[in-house]
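Retro notes - structure team

What went well: the batch runner handled both jobs without manual restarts.
What didn't: labels got mixed up in the shared folder, which is why I'm recording both outputs here explicitly, each with its sequence directly above its tokens.

Job 1
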Amino acid sequence: MNTQPLAYRMRPEKIEEVVGQQHLIGPGKIIWRMVQAHRLSSMILYGAPGAGKTSIASAIAGSTDLSFRILNAATDGKKELQEVAEEGKMSGSVVLLLDEIHRLDKTKQDFLLPHLESGRIILIGATTENPYLSVTPAIRSRCQIFQVQPLSKDDIKKAVDRALSDKKRGLGNYNVKLDPDAENQLATATDGDLRSSLNGLELAVLSTKPVGDKKEIHITLPIIEETIQRKSMSGDKNGDAHYDVISAFQKSIRGSDADAGIYYLGRILEAGDLAIAARRLLVIAYEDIGLANPNAAAHAVQAVTAALQLGLPEARIPLANAVIELALSPKSNSAYMAINQAMEKIESSSTGDVPIHLKNTRNWGKSKDEQIDYLYPHDFPNDWVAQQYLPDKIKNQQFFQAKGNSKFEQGLFDTYKRLKESQRKGLKQ
């Protein structure tokens, strides 16, 4: 009997077997092109647990017939790295998946660097942390950095179906009947974590007694709820209730119905989705309440931090405080609309170059007469001076439009209009 977990056994052997992450491994995309051209470079993959970092590394190695090794930066030492380096020296190159790369210490980093330079080790670092903040510059500068996205419900269903049919590595030798609502629970309740979904499926299959002449293993919703320790938000057949409840949660708070907000929070927490509740509350605080009550957004951050430290069931208390305050706060999505309009402008047209005086260095190519110096606002009365900041093509663009639902936001907008008018007059002089 194979004692390796299902998620381990089902790791893709070719790039085509990876589910999700099509922005990286889809035909014509960057990692796909690396593999096709046999021109691999070291990289760092960062994203949520179970989103496919190890799968991508495994698939790269399998698609290129290179040796593949897995180490952990926190627990494996220089000795294990030396063994990988020796293997790379003998075979030409070895793909090393280094998990938790943000925990790489200086001794191990110093050992790795020359091997990365020589190409003996093709490093694929994996981390759930932001590498721009957590990985040392020496390693970061030698790696391409790619973000992996959370897997969708359909991605996880595809992987589950593959595991059920695969007789060599999966559960294909078992006669498994997986109910649609049970599969939906696997695909939604693990919050994009494929590893948890596959291992929960395997536990369900191995712990359920076969029945009948065909030795059928019937996996129902209650069995999946028990194996992954999360209740379904609803017994619906298409899995939409998971997202319906989350949608209703935000819309109730946006609509200032504190009772409904508390009710839907309870539904989400009863399903064990603390992370979803916390993340959604932060979105609501900044998208729907925003500048109308910035203190409520700060309180929401504090509540979420406390909830994640406490864990369930106590986490419900600070989250309930946040829900009631957000629901009963004045609302404004002006900042949300402003950034959306700015992004749309950037995507739909050429907005022009950064003004010369705002660039990091002076434009030494121009004559002294043409030289435009940056005006340091703190050198002027009231720490302000009329100066152009937007590119020429959109210099008169205005993205911020206040809703005026609170004195605080209206005050910001009044200041915004006053400064815009002073800037316009000052630049005309």
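Job 2
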Amino acid sequence: MSRPDFIVPPPGLIPDPAAPHPAGGATANERTVRVPAADPPVPAPTPMPVPPPSALPSGPPRPAAPAWRLRGAGGVDVRVDRGTVLGRDPLVDPASGHAAVALADPARSVSKTHALVQVVAGRLVVTDLGSTNGVRIWPLGDGPADIPPNVPTEVPDGATLLLGDLGLQAERVPGDTVVA
């Protein structure tokens, strides 16, 4: 008894192109495509109610929330107007609403998820997120001060924020915009 060099499929597994299709008329290699007569109608948009003028805020426009900027060597420029997690490859909980900014650090002194910077009552606040090489604040005219992990600490205007060996200078962004 001789054995074939390949596996033979069972009868009927591969359709015969010349055989008629079970529905009649078409061969096994032809397909029937149904095209709907027309797309269902799209409902008209519902107009949004416009509040009466008495319901709109009154008084002078209030200033926009202050923002801060962190600038570093190599063109690093991070605007901070909400919670922002800094690191080489920061992880952020989507429910927190924080932004994530990856910092290039060839020396690898910045942890993947290093620090949280945010504006609180118009002040820049940094929190060390348990980084390996720590966070230091170097105010103008003073020496650097280490901040303990998980303790929000204010960063003065003009101070240098040190994430590991990476320095970022903090500066307040002038409030030149208003929000009505």
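One thing worth noting from job 2: DSSP finds no helices and 13 strands in the chain.
We'll revisit the folder naming next retro.
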